[in-house]
Specification:
The protein is mainly beta. Helix content is about 5%, strand content about 55%. It has one helix at about 95-100, and strands at about 1-5, 15-30, 55-75, 75-90, 115-125, 135-150, 155-170, 175-185.
Length: about 210
């Protein structure tokens, strides 16, 4: 389920408010462990095939976000947002995650989590069109903080930068696009959030 509403409170169109409510269910999400020092037996069960659940776990999420975008002049835009998210994890039997937990491993958020989010950011947007650009670029910088019930009371955050560029033919029949993104996580990040990029145009689970 994904519902989105955009609202322009001013007639000049310089300010946009967006509201998102989504529920995501990943019955067989991926998990391969983290770090080269992680103790794990990568041998799959004898009866398994390439579709076996050895690297799987289940994740269910409910998200609600409200965000504000405001043009401050030229290609510059400032962004802010607040949100809330709940996560429920189910560890599947006979999987790598279950094995690591049995061996005493600790993974932030494995018992689920509920937290609030605050985001601030800025953009430089030289695209000729927001939805279907032919040329130009978009640079976004975002700082995100999350706080709530994460293995007790906890917090984590992200700093992210995203650069996108577009170059099209004179009539726009062919458009080449590219993207470079970098991110730094800090704090007690839930293990299922390690592969998620922060950002106002990012989709959940984009790296998994």
């Amino acid at each position: 389920l994904y519902s989105c509403l955009s609202w322009f409170p001013s007639s000049d169109g310089k300010t946009e408010a967006s509201f998102v409510l989504s529920s995501n269910g990943f019955h067989s999400d991926w998990w391969f462990g983290t770090g080269t020092a992680t103790q794990r037996d990568l041998t799959r069960p004898d009866e398994g095939d390439v579709r076996d659940p050895w690297h799987r776990f289940s994740l269910y999420q409910l998200r609600a976000y409200a965000r504000m975008f405001h043009d401050v002049g030229g290609p510059f835009r400032v962004l802010t947002g607040v949100g809330a998210q709940g996560n429920a994890v189910r560890v599947l039997d006979n999987t790598l995650l279950a094995q690591q937990l049995d061996q005493g491993g600790h993974f932030v958020g494995v018992d689920g989590s509920v937290y609030a989010t605050v985001e601030i950011g800025a953009q430089i947007d030289t695209r000729d069109a927001r939805l279907d650009p032919v040329h130009g670029g978009l640079l976004t910088g975002v700082a995100q903080g999350n706080i709530g019930q994460i293995d007790g009371f906890g917090a984590f955050g992200r700093l992210a930068a995203d650069l996108r560029g577009y170059l099209g033919s004179p009539r726009g029949e062919v458009v080449l696009g590219g993207e470079v993104a970098v991110q730094m996580n800090f704090g007690e990040v839930p293990f299922y959030e390690l592969g998620v990029l922060a950002g106002f145009e990012a989709q959940p689970r984009v790296l998994t």
